[in-house]
Automatic annotation (TrEMBL):
InterPro entries named in the record: AB_hydrolase_fold, Esterase_lipase, Hydrolase_4, MAG_DAG_Lipase
Alphabetized Pfam families for the sequence: Hydrolase_4
UniProt domain Serine aminopeptidase S33: residue ranges: 39-213
Protein name in the entry: Alpha/beta hydrolase
Residues in the signal sequence: none
PANTHER family: PHOSPHOLIPASE-RELATED
Keywords associated with the record: Hydrolase
Keyword Metal-binding: no
Coiled-coil zones: none
SUPFAM superfamilies the UniProt entry points to: alpha/beta-Hydrolases (SSF53474)
One term of GO molecular function: hydrolase activity
Length: 232
């Protein structure tokens, strides 16, 4: 039984946001891992003119392409990518979902920028090898049009009615120190999803960019165990 994992990054980000987790999956499985870059996103931001519909279509095309190569598809979504993952689970045959810092409620753009700066500065000071992460976030501060932020919030509102229809197994990871998505949002999501197989994991020191959290060594293996439960 071949398994594919589609990993969807967050608003104004890129595949690097989930890179530590995908690196872990590659090291511990033989699964096919795909990390598409949504329109206007990535290393260089060119977001002007792209809408929520573009980002949803990007994810759909990536899902369809992956589904042709494997027997089962798992979808991992970070922040806005978590909402897109729920959208895919509503429309396609998704085996399991992993939602990381899923932006299931309104997100403050001002807080978004503040948290990026804080994360980047901390990463830079703690470990020079994270300098690349610092440069990526510094670049985006002046490159996110207001219209794009409005599209982000529109996407969240568009997908919210689907939450109650999601019945597949799901694992939610949320940092308690997340300044962008309040941690009680994860509880709301957990309560709303109607799956009988669902887990909510809170990282006490985790911030929004949960894949760079000090607690990764705890939740990475737990999520992998969840995914391997029936992804043999």
């Amino acid at each position: 039984m071949s398994v594919g994992v589609l990993c969807i990054h967050g608003f104004s980000g890129g595949p690097y946001e989930v890179e530590p987790f995908t690196t872990y999956l590659r090291a511990n499985t033989n699964w096919l891992i795909e990390q598409p870059t949504l329109s206007g996103h990535g290393e260089e931001l060119h977001m002007r003119g792209f809408t929520a519909k573009h980002w949803l279509m990007d994810a759909e095309l990536a899902f369809r392409a992956l589904a042709k190569k494997v027997d089962e598809v798992i979808v991992v979504g970070f922040s806005m990518g978590g909402i897109i993952a729920l959208y895919l689970a509503k429309r396609y045959k998704v085996k399991k979902l992993v939602l990381l810092s899923a932006a299931a409620k309104y997100v403050s753009p001002k807080q978004l920028v503040k948290d990026f700066k804080m994360l980047a500065t901390e990463a830079y000071n703690r470990n020079l090898s994270n300098n690349e992460l610092f440069l990526r976030y510094r670049h985006k501060f002046n490159n996110v049009p207001l219209a794009s932020t409005i599209e982000f919030m529109r996407l969240v509102r568009m997908v919210e009615p689907y939450y109650k229809d999601i019945q597949i197994p799901v694992y939610i990871v949320q940092g308690k120190l997340d300044g962008i998505v309040p941690y009680h949002t994860a509880q709301f999501l957990y309560n709303t999803l109607t799956s009988n197989d669902k887990t909510l994991y809170f990282s006490d020191k985790g911030k929004h960019h949960i894949c760079y959290d000090e607690g990764c060594s705890e939740w990475f293996p737990q999520v992998l165990l969840f995914l391997k439960g029936s992804a043999k």
